[in-house]
Write a structure and sequence with these properties.
Helix content: 40-55%
Number of strands: 21
Number of helices: 12
Largest sheet: 5 strands, antiparallel
Low-confidence stretches: 1-6, 560-575
Radius of gyration: 49 Å
């Protein structure tokens, strides 16, 4: 049409589809591609941020747990020191000078001091002062000392202000019960600030602070601006301290925080790591603005590229249009070079169209001949079935019923042929399809087993009819005619032949049939002669057994037995 529009028929009305330049569609395509990409990037960014938060959460939790373990190691080391000193304790004041000298040398430079506590809560020996300055003083941490005497276990204090050191310290008290003398406590006092080294040993991300708190929520040590030793920790109440699997949200002073707490089972102290929520959210905000700026630049670049590409595509499409018109007019079309590979491919396809059309027509003719060949075979088999069925029928209704059942059996075999094509029909699938309508193949009353074996078209049709006839006989006077009947179908490959056994038990006693019916013809003529097989029948008191030995060459789907001209023209029912 003159205006380039294309008419379309929809619901009885003619709609006019307006043709637009390819650049418009490229712009739309770019929008369709970019907008979801940006949305997906934003979602992906959010998911990545959440994943990063989980990583940071795991890192902070792990660091807090590592700090607790480091503090526990230091306390355990102090306990070990006390245990060593307890092996040779100062029992009498006469032993004090030697004990004082030995311990002072051992703990020099560690910032730790050892002292004695008597049951009356007084102390008359401390390595914090010289022997000349020793005085009897009352201990400041009576509660921890009494707990050590009562439990006879090592007791660890909270942060206490030392009466001798005039500093915030933590005390570790070990009870000693020497034989025949009054018990006493060996105490080890550490300056609380020394434990900050355990906090600083585990590096936290920027913006995160850590504090070590005692059981009452008093700060023992901190890293960064987390408070001072001896102050009450205000971010979290002391009764809410404990180990958490991850961080938790806390709001204090109008600011949102994320905090992780881990509690020591040895001391009862807690490690708290916290940071403002904005510290964790900042990477997402930075990434969002970076994405937005990059998106604007990308959109501008895409517009320029689309414009250039649309010019190239337009020229190529017009050239392709000219080639298509020549092809429609019956003129030869030669492949041309185009800057766009896909259009160049279409041009080559147009140039090759006539040769491919000829090849397609040749293939159609071949398929028609194959269809005619297979139809001829089917008609031959059906004709043989009709003749043999008529010979064995005593009335028209009997003929119609028997013939109809055999047609249905042949149809099931044909369905399998159509479903599997040149790959061949699976023997077990073929047998189950023929036997199942008479008696379900359940693995108990009916057993069908054997190795995987595929059949060609002729073998599938013949063995399908044979199985149908055997199953029909089993219903009349075989395994399916009485309760408790059993059918076992098996096969195995031996060399270049396949041994097939149909074994029935539990049916009526079998005598030789008075006349040769269609079943006998199928089993002896078609199986025996058409497939070059050996057929034998053995009747016994409990039933009947059919044995077949068929060459593998007659069954193999790769063989061309069913497509040979002599096989196609042969009437298997009239041999």
């Amino acid at each position: 049409m003159a205006d380039g529009s294309v008419p379309a028929e929809t619901g009885g009305r003619r709609l006019r589809l307006i043709a637009r330049p390819i650049a418009v569609y490229l712009f739309v395509l770019a929008l369709v591609a970019l907008v979801p990409a940006f949305i997906f990037s934003a979602v992906l960014l959010q998911r990545n941020n959440e994943a990063q938060e989980r990583v940071v959460e795991t890192l902070i939790t792990g660091n807090a747990r590592a700090i607790v373990q480091a503090v526990d190691r230091e306390i355990n080391a102090n306990v070990t020191t006390l245990r060593v000193l307890a092996t040779m304790p100062p029992v009498t004041p006469a032993d004090y000078p030697a004990f004082h000298s030995r311990v002072t040398q051992a703990l020099a430079g560690t910032g730790s001091y050892v002292y004695l506590v008597h049951p009356d809560m007084t102390s008359d020996l401390s390595t914090r002062v010289s022997l000349a300055e020793q005085r009897v003083t009352r201990v400041g941490d009576v509660q921890t000392a009494q707990r050590a005497f009562d439990t006879r276990e090592v007791a660890i204090s909270d942060a206490v202000f030392g009466t001798v050191s005039q500093q915030w310290v933590v005390n570790i008290l070990m009870p000693v019960f020497p034989g025949g003398r009054d018990p006493f406590l060996l105490g080890l006092s550490r300056t609380a600030g020394q434990l900050s080294m355990a906090l600083l040993a585990s590096r936290m991300p920027d913006g995160w602070r850590v504090a070590l708190l005692d059981r009452s929520g008093i700060i023992i040590a901190t890293s960064g601006a987390g408070g001072s030793t001896g102050e009450a920790f205000t971010l979290i109440a002391h009764d809410q301290l404990g180990s958490t699997p991850g961080w938790r949200d806390i709001r204090s002073g109008g600011i949102d925080y994320l905090a992780v707490t881990q509690q020591s089972l040895l001391t009862g102290w807690s490690v708290v790591a916290w940071a403002e929520r904005g510290v964790v959210a900042k990477p997402l905000a930075d990434a969002f603005w970076s994405l937005l700026a990059g998106g604007v630049l990308l959109a501008a670049l895409v517009v320029l590229v689309i414009y250039a590409v649309s010019l190239q595509i337009g020229r190529s499409v017009h050239g392709l249009e000219a080639d298509a018109k020549r092809l429609g007019a019956g003129q030869p079309v030669e492949a041309r070079s185009f800057p766009i590979a896909e259009i160049e491919t279409v041009s080559a396809a147009l140039g090759d169209a006539s040769r491919r059309r000829q090849a397609a027509e040749t293939e159609v003719r071949f398929l028609m001949r194959e269809l005619a060949h297979r139809s001829k075979n089917q008609m031959t088999i059906i004709a043989a079935m009709a003749k043999q069925t008529a010979r064995g029928a005593d009335s028209v209704p009997e003929f119609v019923s028997s013939f109809e059942k055999r047609i249905f059996g042949l149809a099931r075999s044909t369905d399998l042929l159509l479903a599997h094509g040149v790959a061949g029909v699976d023997l077990k699938e073929l047998l189950v399809g023929q036997i199942d309508p008479f008696c379900p193949v359940d693995g108990q009353q009916v057993v069908v087993e054997g190795p995987a074996l595929r059949l060609n078209a002729q073998a599938a049709q013949i063995l399908g009819m044979a199985a149908h006839e055997l199953a029909t006989n089993a219903v009349k006077y075989g395994a399916f005619s009485k309760e408790g009947g059993h059918l076992e179908v098996s096969w195995m490959r031996s060399g270049d032949r396949v041994a097939f056994v149909w074994h029935e038990t539990g049916g009526k006693p079998v005598d030789a049939p008075p006349r040769r019916g269609f079943g006998t013809t199928v089993l002896e003529n078609m199986v025996g002669r058409s497939l070059n097989g050996e057929v034998s029948r053995a009747a016994h008191a409990r039933g009947i057994t059919w044995r077949f030995s068929i060459p593998m060459a007659s069954l193999d789907p790769n063989e061309t037995l069913n497509s040979r001209e002599d096989g196609a023209d042969r009437n298997p029912g009239d041999k």
